[in-house]
Amino acid sequence: MIKNPSHPQKGHRKTRECKFTKAGIEYIDYKNAEMLLRFMNDQGKILPRRVTGTSAKHQRQLSTAIKRARFLGLVPFIAENLR
Questions:
Q1: pTM of the full predicted structure?
Q2: Which of residues 37 and 10 earns the better pLDDT score?
């Protein structure tokens, strides 16, 4: 097949690794609000797996931990600027 230099080539998709699996974390603690905020956007929504790269198992644990932290007031439900 002849390659056309003016035609843009498809980029390679970088495979994302789960940060929790890589660090060896088995249980996501809801009391670690600083870590939980990294997996939320500026509006307070939980970021999806395809954005963060977490595994399905850890994404379920992460969403449960964020919801618990929200209920206890450790993490805001919505951002301060949206109130």
A1: 0.79
A2: 37
Locus of tokens 């230099």: 5
Distance CA 49, CA 75 (A): 20
**Residues 52-83, buried b or exposed e (16+ Cβ, 10 A)?**
bbbbeebbebbeebbeebbeeebbbeeeeeee
User: How far from 35 is each of 9, 10, 46, 49, 82, CA to CA, in Å?
Assistant: 37, 34, 13, 16, 22
- Structural domains in the chain plus CATH codes: 19-82 (4.10.640.10)
Report the distance separating Cα 13 and Cα 59, nearest Å.
Answer: 21
Residue 54, φ and ψ in degrees, nearest 5: -75, 155
Q: Give the separation between CA 46 and CA 42, rounded to whole angstroms.
A: 10
Tell me which H or E stretch contains 56: helix 56-72
